[in-house]
């Protein structure tokens, strides 16, 4: 099994999966799925993501 970790930075083209705001947080699930959230929704879903053992990466770029 090959595990590929991509660390490409989030861009302005990346949008929150819950709203259309710019994505600031990337959550990678153990299953390989990837979710993008704005800060608002990242906070809202953080507990659930941790339950799923998602790897949460905050984009360091401030807007
Ligand atoms: Zn959002």
What does this structure look like?
The chain has one helix at residues 39-51; strands at 25-28, 34-37, 55-58. A hairpin with a 5-residue loop joins strand 1 and strand 2. The protein is α+β, with helices and mostly antiparallel strands and 63 residues long. The chain has a 3-stranded antiparallel beta sheet with strand order 2-1-3, covered by helices on one side. The protein contains 1 helix and 3 strands; from the N terminus they run E-E-H-E. Zinc ion (ZN) is lined by residues 16, 18-19, 21, 37-38, 40-41. Residues 16, 18-19, 21, 37-38, 40-41 line the site of zinc ion.
Short description:
With 63 residues, the chain is an alpha+beta fold. Helices cover 21% and strands 19% of the residues.
Identify the notable features of this structure and list them briefly.
single chain, three-stranded antiparallel beta sheet, 1 helix, globular, binds zinc ion
């Amino acid at each position: 099994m090959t595990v590929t970790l991509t660390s490409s930075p989030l861009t302005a083209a990346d949008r929150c999966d819950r709203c259309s705001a710019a994505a600031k947080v990337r959550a990678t699930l153990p299953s390989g799925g990837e979710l993008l959230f704005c800060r608002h929704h990242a906070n809202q879903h953080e507990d659930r993501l941790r339950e799923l053992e998602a790897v949460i990466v905050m984009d360091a770029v401030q807007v």
